[in-house]
Structure formats: C-alpha cells, structure tokens
C-alpha cells in the first residue's frame, strides 16, 4: 500500500498560526527491535491521529500486531490508514483517584487500578498486547530533553523548535545510541543500518 503523506497539510488555528497551546508527541515503537519508526508533534485529536497512523502505515513492510492506549481517535485512524491488514488490540487503563491532597493533586498522576484489553481487528495475541515498551520510551524522551521537563521554562517557544528537537532525539536514539538490552542500536537490530552512527554522521545529513 502507498500513502500520499504530502497531501496532509500542517494544521493551523483560527488565526492562521500553528503552535499555540498544548501539543503532544505521538510515538510508535517496535517491541522487538526498540526502533521508533514514526513520531509526530501535534494536537491529540483526530486530525493528527490519522496523520500519525498514515505515516506509520507507510513504513510497514509486513503485517504486524499493534497495541494502542484507549484514545478513541485510534479506532478510526488505524482502520482508515491500515484497514484489516493488521492485528490490532486496544489497552484501556482504569484509573482511581490520586492519593495527593490540596495543591499536590495537580502534580500527582492518578493511580492505575487495572487494564482492559479489547481486540479490535485481526487476531491479536492478547498475551503480547502491551503499551509498556512505548511508555518506557516516552520516559526516555522526557529524560533526554529539557523541553519535556514539567514545571520549568525549558519548553519550546515555537512549534518548529520542538519538532526539530524531537527529530534529532529520535535520530540519535535510533541510530547512535546503544540500547543496553540489545547491545546495539535499534536501527542496527532492525536491519536498517549495519553501523553505529556518530554525531558527525547525523550532522552531515543537513549538508
């Protein structure tokens, strides 16, 4: 299948500007190789959900099993982008009230009390349906960039700056950072490259 990603314009707000308000980083992770084949900086809405899944679909060479969180946007985005050529399950976490009180409540995450796994399409292996790997990757992303550190002024003032920072992070993560478990980079494990990339190799791509 081929997808025309150039047909997806960058979304703007009512003032004709992009980058005002909260934005999110959508990420996809291969549980076996730890490669991040696709990411997208944008709003957490149907528009960007579909754009993200279209980009991921364009990078798949064979049928895979996919697990997403309970964000309802995925239900239509996955079907529209990949159709029935995927084994897809949705993992919905159940949260209870936070233990924090007063002002601390807004900085404390709710307590996860359980999870429900729902087969959506194909024949997903429920035993392998998990979002733990990508959640760990999100932690790595937060720890690697000051822009994602909460309660600081290190956030990006322009959406373009955030997009560039995220792109550099994942380029380094995929090609130049040895994964402790794999003993090589995710790109090497996935067979995308046969060498360990240096910072000079990454910088030379801009020439």
Overall mean confidence score, pLDDT:
86
Q: What is the strand arrangement across the widest sheet?
A: 3-4-5
Spans of at least 5 consecutive residues with low confidence: 1-8
Which structural class should the secondary elements be placed in?
A: alpha+beta
* C-alpha Rg (nearest Å): 18 Å
Shape: globular
Q: How many DSSP helices? A: 6
Provide the β-strand percentage band. 15-25%
CATH class descriptor? Alpha Beta
Main β sheet profile: 3 strands, mixed
In whole angstroms, how far apart are the ends?
31 Å
Run of helices and strands: EEHEHEEHHHH
Count of structural domains: 1
CATH architecture: 2-Layer Sandwich
Helix content: 25-40%
Strand elements, count:
5
Would you give an account of this structure?
With 207 residues, the chain is an alpha+beta fold. It has one domain (5-89, 121-204): 2-Layer Sandwich (Nucleotidyltransferase, domain 5). It contains six helices and five strands. The chain has helices at 46-58, 73-82, 132-144, 159-175, 186-189, 199-204, and strands at 24-28, 38-42, 65-68, 87-96, 111-121. Helix 1 (46-58) packs parallel to helix 2. The longest helix has 17 residues, at 159-175. The chain is globular. The two termini are 31 Å apart. The model is unreliable at 1-8 (pLDDT under 50).
């Amino acid at each position: 299948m081929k997808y025309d990603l150039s047909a997806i314009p960058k979304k703007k707000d009512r003032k004709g500007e992009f980058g005002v308000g909260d934005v999110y980083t959508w990420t996809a992770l291969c549980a076996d190789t730890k490669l991040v084949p696709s990411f997208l900086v944008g709003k957490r809405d149907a528009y960007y959900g579909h754009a993200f899944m279209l980009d991921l679909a364009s990078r798949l060479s064979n049928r895979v099993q996919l697990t997403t969180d309970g964000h309802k946007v995925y239900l239509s985005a996955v079907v529209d982008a990949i159709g029935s050529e995927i084994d897809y399950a949705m993992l919905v976490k159940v949260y209870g009230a936070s233990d924090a009180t007063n002002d601390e409540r807004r900085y404390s995450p709710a307590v996860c009390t359980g999870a429900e796994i729902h087969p959506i399409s194909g024949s997903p292996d429920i035993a392998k349906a998990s979002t733990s790997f990508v959640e760990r990757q999100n932690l790595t992303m937060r720890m690697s960039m000051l822009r994602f550190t909460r309660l600081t002024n290190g956030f990006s003032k322009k959406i373009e700056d955030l997009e560039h920072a995220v792109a550099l992070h994942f380029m380094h993560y995929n090609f130049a950072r040895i994964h402790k478990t794999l003993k090589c980079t995710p790109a090497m494990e996935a067979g995308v490259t046969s060498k360990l990339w240096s910072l000079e190799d990454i910088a030379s791509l801009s020439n």
